[in-house]
Design brief:
With about 475 residues, the protein is of the alpha/beta class. It has 3 domains: about 170 residues, Rossmann fold, CATH 3.40.50.720; about 250 residues, N-(1-d-carboxylethyl)-l-norvaline Dehydrogenase, domain 2 (Orthogonal Bundle); about 30 residues, 6-Phosphogluconate Dehydrogenase, domain 3 (Single alpha-helices involved in coiled-coils or other helix-helix interfaces, Up-down Bundle). Helix content is about 55%, strand content about 10%. It has 19 helices and 9 strands. The strands form 2 sheets. A 7-stranded mixed beta sheet has the order 3-2-1-4-5-6-7, sandwiched between helices. Strands 8-9 form a two-stranded antiparallel sheet. Helix 15 packs antiparallel against helix 16. The protein is globular and about 75 Å long. Bound molecules: 6-phosphogluconic acid. The site of 6-phosphogluconic acid (6PG) has 12 residues, from helix 8 and helix 11.
Amino acid sequence: MNQPDYDFGMIGLGVMGRNFLLNVADHNYAALGLDLDEEKVAALNQEAGDRTLRGTTSMEEFVGQLKKPRKIMMLVPAGKPVDAVIQQLLNFVDEGDLIIDGGNSHFNDTNRRSVELAEKNIHFIGVGVSGGAEGARRGPSIMPGGDGEAYKIVAPILEAVSAKVDGDPCVDYMGKTSAGHYVKMVHNGIEYGMMQLIAEVYDILKRIVKLPNDQISEIFSSWNQRELSSFLIEITAEIFSKKDDDDTSSLIDKILDKAKQKGTGKWTSQSAMDLGIPIPTIDAAVSMRGISSQKVNRLRAAETFPDEHFELAGIDTNVLVDQLQDSLYLAFIVTYAQGFSQLSEASLEFDYELDMERIAKIWRGGCIIRADLLEDIRKAFDEDPQIPNLLLSNVFKTEIQRTQNSLRNILKLALDYNIPTLALSSALNYFDAMRTGRLPLNLVQAQRDYFGSHTYERIDKGGTFHTDW
Ligand code: 6PG
């Protein structure tokens, strides 16, 4: 066998793995891929061109060709496939080698694998990679966590391939154990929230303002030039201008309204519940994917309860479009605020020692939730690293005050038109609840004490109390 002369190995040559590896090779690292599928290996070999890049179907050859300490990343489906690959790798790797899980693994799996591999003196890092296929190819946002010393082994490569904002790489060490995968999971939760909010705004533009798709496209395009500027707004504009292949109609109108999910949004909600941190806008987005999937039931209910809303006269389209822009902006701020509050609590609970400013910084480029707003979020954490909730930051005070009435008006209108706005309304309700000094939950405490003697605290004196109601 030849001398090992490859710098970096990738297991799994699906779209993400292949693109990531091409990106590595473009940065002058000798890159080697492994996949059991001969066609994928052949495709990689063909695409290699002048690069030092090659694929193989043999794990023994793959491991043998990598320079030590070996840097082996896998981009395979989360769950059992990750464990299966690690088991196979253990037959070939040596102590001190580094295994990198770049998929959307559940953080508890990453914790378990960190312990199992540390016992064998194999370095392991769980790394969130965001940006889809294009990001992997041209520069993703990368969220590594786990063994900090091990991260240093691969840091130069990850920095080279990551997206850059003002010259800064969109990769940074997140923290111990599963910190990288946890941050990526919350990234995806925020992604779900933003996507659902945009979908609700689309519904209002379509059903209340009754705009055709090309005009909706123009509106999103113009919003993308201003404070809403973000990857998701940009692609939304493009989606509405896309025609179907076989005719001149809009493709969007042909797409079935059932949204699927791989689970990271649900995991975000589950973990937030476990931590006792409210993230209702992300929860709403997960719920709406569930409701969208119940197409048969929805069609039955639509027959039983036909939409008989009252059409309002004299709606000023320009005013409404501006209010929608403000509403979306405020709802985005609230969604990020929820995600970051979850990260703060998770950091304490799991001892991750997350740095919120660093997270905002590496999310500014490459990832799906990249947005101009993240620079303001970074500033907010720079001003006050311990801020418990972004809604309390001075950075957002004026903007929240400016936009909140727009969201109120939009929601009133949506209610009149029977348009579901679970995410938009949850964002405003979260804000209203957070800024209400005295909520009616004193009653909940009284009820708990009434039927279960669960006791309550008082506002006029210390201690715990029980009343014989
Ligand atoms: C990313 C995306 C990526 C993937 C989502 C899709 O950051 O690049 O989040 O990880 O597209 O996992 O998730 P769903 O299938 O659950 O929508």
